[in-house]
Design brief:
8 helices; about 65% helix
Amino acid sequence: MQDISEPSDGPVYGQGDTSFQTAGGFDGVAKLVNQFYDFMDTLPEATIIRAMHPTDLSESRDKLTRFLCGWLGGPKLFSEKYGSIRIPVAHEHLRIGEAERDAWLLCMKRAVELQPYPDDFKVYLMRELYVPAERSRQRSANIHGAS
């Protein structure tokens, strides 16, 4: 996650559970995820990715909340319930191009903006979330052809 050699006066995100705690622990992550899916349901730009999800988003919300908890350095709740996951592999059945990646990131950006996180954490989080989103797009391009 963050290059820990960068100088910082504040918390070092990506080290230990600092990111998880900064995100508000489980409840904070769940709030972020719920707002993310609310944007996916309402933003016209997200129609393309909303169609990739089931009508009932309950399991999707649970999976993303659990995944992000562990990804942010907190408890590995996803693997406890669902087993191991590699994001690009888990999404390889989907055609993810730049439009889909960008729609996902837009929903997440809007949700992150609503959180009471420090501004530097918001920037850090969006920069880090770009990585798995882009890797999923690249894997999709390798499997389904570029888009």
